[in-house]
Amino acid sequence: MTHEEHHEAKTLGIGKAIAVLTSGGDAQGMNAAVRAVVRVGIYTGARVFFVHEGYQGLVDGGDNIREATWESVSMMLQLGGTVIGSARCKDFREREGRLRAAHNLVKRGITNLCVIGGDGSLTGADTFRSEWSDLLSDLQKSGKITAEEATKSSYLNIVGLVGSIDNDFCGTDMTIGTDSALHRIIEIVDAITTTAQSHQRTFVLEVMGRHCGYLALVTSLSCGADWVFIPECPPDDDWEEHLCRRLSETRNRGSRLNIIIVAEGAIDKQGKPITSEDIKNLVVKRLGYDTRVTVLGHVQRGGTPSAFDRILTKDVTRAMDERRFDEAMKLRGRSFMNNWEVYKLLAHVRPPKSKSGLHTVAVMNVGAPAAGMNAAVRSTVRIGLIQGNRVLVVHDGFEGLAKGQIEEAGWSYVGGWTGQGGSKLGTKRTLPKKSFEQISANITKFNIQGLVIIGGFEAYTGGLELMEGRKQYDELCIPFVVIPATVSNNVPGSDFSVGADTALNTICMTCDRIKQSAAGTKRRVFIIETMGGYCGYLATMAGLAAGADAAYIFEEPFTIRDLQVNVEHLVQKMKTTVKRGLVLRNEKCNENYTTDFIFNLYSEEGKGIFDSRKNVLGHMQQGGSPTPFDRNFATKMGAKAMNWMSGKIKESYRNGRIFANTPDSGCVLGMRKRALVFQPVTELQEQTDFEHRIPKEQWWLKLRPILKILAKYEIDLDTSEHAHLEHITRKRSGEANI
Predict the structure, then answer these.
(1) CA-wise closest residue to 126 among 110, 140, 115, 139
(2) Which residues are catalytically annotated?
């Protein structure tokens, strides 16, 4: 990267003007996007304007179009809805209105427009751009603008945010606000289900989605629903029979609670609506169950339906109108199909009656507890049972495997586990090596033919030890797969671990509360210590999401000079209208520059200018109910791992027994870019820094410069990494409901 290119990033915008508007329905996360656009715009040297009240403000002009400053977007991150307002606008739909809007932009020299919004707003922007040159010539003819102004503004650039901010993993296409809506829905579902456990009840929940079953589908995976109705995939004609049979089967298996999720646009194969009331009446009439309907309308705080009705390509709508439902599903994309397949397996396939059991697979948790572990265990167990396997659960990790703390799990053993935090099986950090004798004996005793290990760095190192042990013990020659689950997100072979999203949300919620607590006071700096071992993922991502001034991590060494620069930066910041500072420190970023040291340094240097406070977040980061993302991620990982396991066991069957000793029979199942991939643990060894328990290369380090820009540091941004900007828009707006 040359010096010239670095310099370029900071001069890219000089002489240019950008206008930002939000339109269509409110969606949480819009403010975060506005803040990032404004600050990166100012960083590049451009002038940035807020357009208040969406397209209406663009048409009306005047005070509705105001220049934005760095400070004017402070404290916007945690607010729901949209701060600059997002009126829907009839005027802009008429050419006359668009003519006035063009006039307002040209007069201010604005030729770049950033539109953040739902359905119609991006279509409107597109029309505006295609007509731009005609609008300018009309304005010039009527004498409203000069020839010179027309030439200067001859080209209009438009960037639309939301369409689908690709959430960078699982390929679940997310729009800004979708994840926040899920958080709202899941909070309600969790509250309802706890009351229902005490009475036998059936709940019918209606969620938003007139043309799109995304929210309904992901909600049903997140709460382990018995059935989901979505517009893209109408049920078979005998669905009433099937549904009632399904509900009575789960009741007979001991379940006290049935959950049915309905998208508001659900239809049958003939295109006739299926409403939540229809379903309630059916269940009451046929089965006599106590049934309640809850319509989760606008609980999503500020969210109007269109913000969540994914901006549908016209193709999907057309396919649905013409009842070509298979095609509608395909057009939705790979991730939607995957979600649907997992849901169908977990909800609709009946486990075989016979207990003969094809193979015996054991499931265990290793390392520290992480939210989502139980969801992974649940889907592993149930997919295993569906395949006709015998599934065992091991308590207390490798220690329990050595001591024989092993029992068989049936279908209802894992009932209701999806939303539970921590580890129900119990988990320990103990590694297997010193207990190979006892472990081998128990593998034989319980006839274990495959192991699913759900856990953090110890699960991975434990896997490596098992590979090593195969040389001495034939019993260890069975396939195993590691599902990464740790708040630290430090397992080699995976960009994400189950549990990290929940930890990130917890940290961000805490940071938001701490920042808000200071909103009334003058000049205060908070120093917050996060977990993560030597891995700086949580500190960095929480720093981006909560708008931190600095995030100290082990992977990016820092000196006393850096600390001094940060203190001086905060002293300067306190002279502006922003009177708060937030500094995050990863627990093991530096053994000498401890949280106390940094706190003392800031306290001394900030005397008379700002107060300092410190806060060590501790184990609250591991706990709590898993976020929708972690529930779904864990559920998909469990299903994928068990499918792989069945294939591997069949492959390894020789002379009446299992014998697996190839490198590819011991894998980590990881999320890489947008795919779930199985990687042999032995191949991941070179990619691991064992002393510090982190992968040698970590994708999120590329996001660090953006953290500094958003905190107004004079730094160089590598503009060649266009792709990495998408993480940010997504991170703040999609995954973390902050």
Answers:
(1) 115
(2) 166
